[in-house]
Batch of 2 targets.
Target 1
Amino acid sequence: TVAIALFTADLRTHDSPVLRGALDAADQVVPLFVLDEGIRAAGFRTPNRGAFLAGCLADLDAALRERGGRLVIRSGDLVREVCRVAEETGAGQVHVAGDVSAFAQRREERLRAALAGMRRELCVHADAAVVIPPGAITPADKGHSAVFTPFFRKWSAAGARRPLGAPRKVSVPDIDSEPPPEAVGLAGGRPSSGLPPGGETEARRRLKAWLGGPVDRYEDLHDDLAADATSRLSPYLHFGCLSPIEVVHRARQRGGAGAEAFVRQLAWRDFNRQLLADRPDAARDDYRCRQDRWRPDGEDAEAWRAGRTGYPLVDAAMRQLVTEGWMHNRGRLITASFLAKTLYVDWRVGARHFLDLLVDGDVANNQLNWQWVAGTGAATRPNVVLNPLLQARRFDPKGDYVRRWVPELREVEGSAVHRPWLLPGDLRRRLDYPDPIVDLDEALARFRTGRAA
Ligand code: FAD
């Protein structure tokens, strides 16, 4: 007998319910990845995520080969390709991870119907990409939890299953595969220069290093921009090179205040997923419509994208995004608040730009975090505006983060780097750095009156 393990956002062999489910169901397994043309057509396969994905696929293929198997790669319409492979191999079951976006939900329905038409079974593993599956924690009257703190309390108490080990042997039937794709072939365009390498091997190495020490400083330093003291595991979690259940399990084993704070942060992933599972429209539409009269894309948004707003902390973070395909969470909060509230530009403009560049770009986490900051999401204090100067004082007090990312300001010492407009005339003139594009007090007034009555 044959079963298909269809990899999507779970590109790993350890703690893989999809691979394990297929192995338990049949003598032979087709570990299959389809380069879905729908994802490319939707513009979701960008140079950064394409390059990272290519690394993940090469590593997954190598891990399967070590176990006597290999990865089978096809490209085209995912449903058509899976059915074709089922036909070619006589596979009776297809195992796949549950997913929440509207695109993924539609795709799953199409796949289920197509397989049913061939008398094949689709087995969806709801726990393959989350710790607690969407829908498992819900208040009595709702399809999802709208407030994080009570969600987190129940999430912590729920207790996840134990992680599964990697299989020792994977026997694959004789079947054609395309060669593993090259990064450039996946998404045209050049990836960011500071992109991390994709794949489960690198992911596990980083997780081990992280839990071996740095996590202990997480509670104190996670918001310190210059310290750069977060795990940077987000791309590996996005592509499923790491199982969130295993990450949480190992962090809890490690214990301590740092590990606990880190686990709490991982719960946000599940929180956003269950919001999107219940409200797929929130990827595009306001989760809570507050009648904002957003300003459209234009010159201000362009300065924001270019990292030339004249507010050094905002510009530093925007440039980190371009160079690394990643941005520190505090930077994401500050730059998103600056676009959506200070410039009062539609949050969708910013969310699109983030998705174009972030290697961890994720519909649930990106769109719902943007909505959180813009005040249309699940935030309990939707009118908070982050002042970039006050944020600078708290989270980059010495100005080191700004000097790291804004070379024009490197010769300015200490915290003076955050207010270049106050520098002595000749120094100010020498710096090729713009004046602020907006007055913060005027911007605050515009935001407060911007909402229609
Ligand atoms: P750590 O601080 O080490 O946290 C560990 C893990 O917890 C992260 O890898 C991530 O999986 C999860 N996590 C942490 N914070 C959050 C959060 N606020 N929401 C959801 N999950 C979280 N995260 C993404 O993975 N993809 C995105 O597209 C994304 N877009 C964002 C957009 C905005 C405007 C904001 C404010 C946040 C966004 N985040 C996104 C959340 C967060 O910024 C990143 O997950 C985090 O910066 C990744 O770095 P890290 O792995 O070092 O995080």
Target 2
Amino acid sequence: TQLVNQIAAGEVVERPSSVVKELVENSFDAGARQIRIDIEQGGARLIRVRDDGGGIDKEDLPLALSRHATSKIATLADLEHVASMGFRGEALPSISSVARLTLISRTEGSDCAWRVAADGTERDFDPQPDPHPRGTTVEVRDLFYNTPARRKFLKSEKTEFEHIQTLVERMALSRFDIGFRLTHNQKEILNLKPAETPAEQEKRIAGICGSAFIDNCVKIDFASSGLELTGWVGLPTFSRSQPDMQFFYVNGRLIKDKLVAHAVKQAYQDVLYHGRQPVFVLYLALDPALVDVNAHPAKLEVRFREGRLVHDFLFSALHRSLAEVRP
Ligand code: ADP
Ligand code: MG
């Protein structure tokens, strides 16, 4: 099982930011309102994610670290399938096979929290009491300590942390209702309060994209024939034009898609500024039946059932919204 876990980890845990992604998604699933992420040495030494979600019952703690009975990886041949379909129920066991993992959790109404631990070879599934408040903390230390070849592939502390920060920013832009705090080597990097009102949301955008962006942007809010586009597009007066400041979410999920990129760029260049890459944070909401966002969870791919319709909607939504503010 350990070998299978480690091979599975090769698929799910590419680098520290992949661990952060799995842990934060678990916190989302647990209904967290506040997520705190502490990183040391780019995540190689420590990744700690704490939430105030529903928690895990004492008797379920060992289960959370065990490969599920219905494991999708019975044989190596299954790996390919899992790699394309995602790892449901595989993340914590996989991570614990290539790091030292501690899981502490407390559910509502429990007198105290309970702690279990697992690392590459040793599993301590006898829960110990802990003063942790309601919610869950997962602590991942010494990633790849027992797979030196993988550890060697980690980039510099700075680069690995940049991957983590980018990921957290992307996730924070998809869940305004959740507060995020990110530290690196005890230094606070992001502190984003839950943002309910439009003003609070713009504050979060400013915290991530810079206040110059929010001061030089057009707010988009457009709906027609069941599709809805909201968000912000930077004006040409906003001079920072980095390709990584293009955030596009479909039903709350960040995607990268040629058709989308084309429609946005076309409308932007038509109306505002030819020859420049637009900067944007945009949210498309549409009938989930019209889109397959799980085509490849790791690759941000998306498949629209009616590509033409989506393209034309985006183009005309942006064209009209931007034309209203054309200088
Ligand atoms: P999956 O999320 O696909 O079910 P994971 O390995 O990521 O698999 O997590 C295993 C289980 O542990 C989850 O199904 C959930 O029950 C529990 N769990 C993990 N993280 C948390 C958390 N932060 N809060 C509450 N439960 C959690
Ligand atoms: Mg999970």
